[in-house]
Design goal:
3 helices, two-stranded parallel sheet, 9 strands, alpha/beta, 35% helix, 5-stranded mixed β-sheet
Length: 157
């Protein structure tokens, strides 16, 4: 994995593209609307200030999404021969010391959602999993070191 790359799944890429298009449409519509006057009598018009804040927010978000779309790397399943090793995009079933099985999917940091089992490759658990195989034990350096055994690895298409 390359340092500084933005890793996205196909779903994450589509979501980012849609968000970029939606915000661009909002930005375009906002610019086409009547722009409040800068001055209201001798004071700065609060509507104008609010308009500028909204416009700045939109432009910053659009710039951020544009950067992501220029610098992303799509997460794709590895060749069949390399699917026994945990890498980006893998779904991994882990067994904890109390025999509880948890399932996680390794994604880039923009798509992280721990409540959905989507963890970043940059998180302590994600980093600990990368490069390991089914049957191996890993130790995750959290507040308390936690040991897991990798039970199963799968990749989505």
């Amino acid at each position: 994995m390359e340092e500084g790359k933005i890793y996205l799944t196909k779903e994450g890429l589509e979501k980012t593209k849609k968000q970029y298009q939606d915000l661009w449409k909002i930005r375009k519509a906002k610019s086409a609307d009547d722009i409040p006057q800068f001055l209201q009598s001798e004071e700065i018009n609060p509507e104008y200030l609010s308009f500028q804040e909204d416009l700045n927010f939109l432009e910053n978000k659009i710039s951020e999404l544009k950067y992501i779309l220029k610098n992303f790397q799509l997460i794709e399943p590895p060749a069949k021969a390399k699917r026994e090793v945990v890498n980006l995009g893998a779904q991994v079933w882990l067994e904890s010391k109390n025999n509880q099985i948890d399932k996680f999917r390794i994604v880039g940091h923009l798509e992280t959602n721990p409540f959905e089992g989507e963890i970043s490759n940059e998180s302590p658990l994600g980093q600990a999993l990368l490069g390991h195989k089914t049957g191996e034990e890993i130790i995750v350096p959290l507040a308390v070191k936690t040991k897991y055994k990798i039970k199963k690895i799968e990749y989505r298409r």
